[in-house]
Write a structure and sequence with these properties.
The chain is an alpha/beta fold. It contains 14 helices and 11 strands. It is globular, with a radius of gyration of 21 Å. It comes from Orrella daihaiensis.
């Protein structure tokens, strides 16, 4: 995985947190919702990663006139043979970039999110399994809301993490311009999709103490019932807290992050580091929060302060060993 990151960073400058979250998604088999203004190398990153992993990459530009068949495929009548043949859509790829997902109507969004959950497509009664690994990275533009269809909360919940991509630092932007005006950079294939599948299995064998699982559950429950966690002042700002998918994603993401950091066990800090990305899109904020300019990240920061992390999560495990 270090070799994969090394090759990607030959092309992509900075964006370390973004790259780390992509690697977590690849290891845990989750999907990413990426929010950032245009020109921040979102497409370039995913395309480069597909080349390094020798996988297939497809990009779909979501528009208001897009149809579900444009994503998943459809049946086409062949006049020569007088038979119907199945044309598979662009979702059949290892890495799928759904650009500006909120520009397509709800029917198209639902078609993609169903594919994300089931990892298969049914066309005319015939089921087609998607290639493995299959990771969707959907982008949203935060600066233009005109002509968009906001993603319903139930659909947003299917994404493992929501990552906010910011502008690069001035010194990073200097390197970006230098690379853009210079010769094109070739990246080498450092792994295959089969190797990635084996790495995913190895990652899933990482040890997660039951105390950390309880910590993840406590964090999520604090967003549903803030008063019980001593955060009664936050209750007016939250309409609905995070779902059980948040608890699962917290543990899965923390385990993958520990693996990237070279450990076969997960610590509370791993879980704390992924918590904002896992929970920010799962909180439904109230009108009071909008009026008071309270964001989901503010709520998560307060929750992380109020809910104590386990001090010795691996103590019992070490005793047994």
């Amino acid at each position: 995985m270090e070799g994969v990151l090394y090759e990607v960073k030959k092309v992509v400058v900075g964006q370390d947190a973004f790259l780390e979250r992509i690697m977590i998604a690849m290891l845990s088999g989750g999907h990413l919702l990426i929010e950032g203004v245009p020109g921040l190398a979102k497409t370039l990153t995913v395309n480069t990663l597909a080349k390094v992993l020798q996988g297939s990459f497809k990009r779909i530009q979501f528009t208001p006139d897009l149809l579900p068949a444009d994503l998943v495929g459809t049946r086409v009548y062949n006049q020569k043979t007088s038979e119907f043949t199945t044309e598979l859509g662009p979702v059949f790829a290892n890495l799928l970039l759904a650009d500006e997902i909120n520009r397509a109507p709800a029917k198209v969004q639902s078609a993609l999110l169903e594919v994300m959950q089931e990892r298969q497509v049914t066309i005319a009664g015939q089921t087609h399994t998607l290639p493995k690994p299959f990771v969707v990275m959907a982008t949203q533009n935060p600066i233009e809301s005109e002509g968009t269809y906001p993603l319903p909360e139930a659909q947003v919940d299917r994404f493992m993490m929501k990552v906010l991509v910011g502008y690069p630092q001035p010194e990073e932007e200097f390197v970006i311009v230098q690379r853009a005006i210079g010769d094109s950079i070739n990246v080498a294939a450092r792994a295959s999709t089969e190797q990635l599948a084996e790495i995913q299995k190895h990652c899933r064998r990482g040890f997660v103490d039951s105390a950390l699982v309880q910590y993840a559950v406590d964090l999520v429950n604090a967003t549903r019932d803030p008063a019980k966690a001593g955060l009664g002042k936050l209750a007016p700002f939250i309409m609905f807290g995070a779902s059980p998918r948040a608890s699962i994603s917290l543990v899965e993401g923390a385990r993958a992050l520990a693996f990237l950091r070279g450990r076969a066990y997960t610590t509370p800090q791993d879980l704390i580091d992924v918590a904002p990305d896992v929970m920010r899109h799962r909180l439904v904020m109230s009108y009071e929060a909008l009026a008071e300019n309270v964001t989901a990240d503010d709520i998560i920061a307060e929750v992380l302060k109020a809910v104590a992390a386990p001090e010795r999560p691996l103590h019992r495990h070490v005793q047994v060993a």
